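pasting input
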Amino acid sequence: MTINVLTLFPEMFESVKASSIWARAIDSQSIEIKTVNIRDYTTDKHNRADDSPFGGGAGMLLKPEPVSACFDDVISSCPQPHLNVYMSPCGKTLSHDMSVDLSKYACVNILCGHYEGVDQRAIDKHIDMQISIGDYVLTGGELAAMVVIDAAMRHIGGVLGNDQSAENESFSDALLEHPHYTRPAVLDDKAVPEVLLSGHHTKIEQYNRQMSLQQTAKSRPELLGKTVLTKDDIDYLTSK
Ligand SMILES: C[S@@+](CC[C@H](N)C(=O)[O-])C[C@H]1O[C@@H](n2cnc3c(N)ncnc32)[C@H](O)[C@@H]1O
C-alpha cells in the first residue's frame, strides 16, 4: 500500500515515520508513506500556498491551484485503485470498519488542511471522502492523517509482528478488549487473576471473553447491541 500525504508541513511526519511499527513497516516495504509539500506546487514568486477567504472571516485558506496541481501530480503515478481523502472535522468519523476498508486500497492520498481549511473547489474536484477523527477541531490535518494511517496500516499483512494481533483487539468483534497482565504475578499485594496462570486455555478464553463483556458493558454499553452474543455471554451479563 502507498500513502501520499499532501501537506504544508511534511516535517511533522519524520519522527513518526522513523519510530516503532511505522519504521519497521516502511523498512519491510509493507507500506510506503510519502509526504508531498503542497508549497512545491505554487507558481508565484513568494510561494504562497494560502490566501484570505472571500466574504471575510478569520484565518487563511489553502489556495486551490497548488492543492489541485499537487493532486494531479500524485495521482498521475499512484497505484490503483486509489482513494483521495481530505482530513476534515466535517467528514465521517473514523471507525474500525473504515480503517479496514482504507487498508484495502493500493493507494490512499490524504490532503491535510491547515489554518481555516481548503478552498472548496479543490475539495470538489479531487476528494472522494472526508474523514474526521472526532468532534473537535485541530489546528491542522497532519495529526489526524497520522491517526488514520496508523489505524489503517495495522490491517495490512506483515505490518504487525503477529497477523492475529489486529484481529483480537478492541472493536474487531465490536467489543472492547479484556485487560492484560505481565510479570510480576504479584505487585503491591495485587495478584494477576489466577485463571491466567492456570495454563487452561479454554478457561482463559472464557475468562477473557467475560472481562471483555464486562469492560464493554461498563464503558460502551451501546456496542453490546452490535455483536452476536452467545447464551453464555447473556447469562454472564445478566448475572452481573
Ligand atoms: C483549524 S482546522 C479548520 C476547521 C474548519 N474551519 C471548521 O470549522 O470545520 C484546520 C484543518 O485541520 C484539520 N482538522 C481539524 N480538525 C479535524 C478533525 N477533527 N478531524 C480531521 N481533521 C481535522 C482539517 O484538515 C482542517 O482543514
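fyi The chain has eight helices and ten strands.
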